[in-house]
Amino acid sequence: MLIEEPNSHFAKPVLQAVRVLNLYACLGGNRYKWDEVANIEVTAVEYDAEIAKAYQERFPNDKVIVADAHQYLLDHYKEFDFIWSSPPCPSHSKIRITQRSRETFTPLYPDMKLYEEIIFLDNHFDGKYCVENVTPYYEPLIPAKKRGRHLYWTNFNLPNDLKERKLDGILCTMIDEHKKLEVFHDLKINANLGGYRDVLRNLVDYEAGKTIFQTALGIIERSNIKQNSLFGDGW
Description:
CATH topology: Rossmann fold
Distance between the termini: 22 Å
Number of domains: 1
Shape: globular
Order of helices and strands: EEEEHEHEHHEEEHHH
Number of helices: 7
Structural class: alpha/beta
CATH architecture: 3-Layer(aba) Sandwich
Strand order of the largest sheet: 5-4-3-6-7-9-8
CATH superfamily: Vaccinia Virus protein VP39
Largest sheet: 7 strands, mixed
Number of strands: 9
């Protein structure tokens, strides 16, 4: 995002950091390559303190907050240019209705915070947003854009190809699954981290995260250029 010093037609453009909110940040699979796209100031919100600590070690320049991401969004959405939200997916996942799951898990209501955030962002947020989740076992209540294994709700058009990398093998049959996932996502986590396998499985591929952020940023920058040209003082 470019800005100019006030009251000077000869001022050189100054690169202003894009303010990004990364909700339910986990280990930052989506965020990994955002630094390659723009100068950014990232605020990451993660409820699990141990996961938040691992995120902070991976991204030491990000502001990491241990808090309820759903409430944080409501309280702070006006402070950001781009918001990414990945609400918890287990209550929506197709695995919930497999025969094995029916025998193992207690049935759950789908967590409607997912749709609360989509509706809220679409009607109240002036920037660009992306809400990500799994393909659910039911017909999505709000139409989404399906890319790979994930659904994305955005207020901008997504490319058909997110440049998402494919992981060889089916997760449930992979030998040394967590090691392969660590290599795939270019990270290493403590095996004592609670639910670390699920954490690794649920990460968005970093190339897809980069493509989505790059697409949103391009729209934000074009909008700023247009606005500056409309309201600039001229020569």
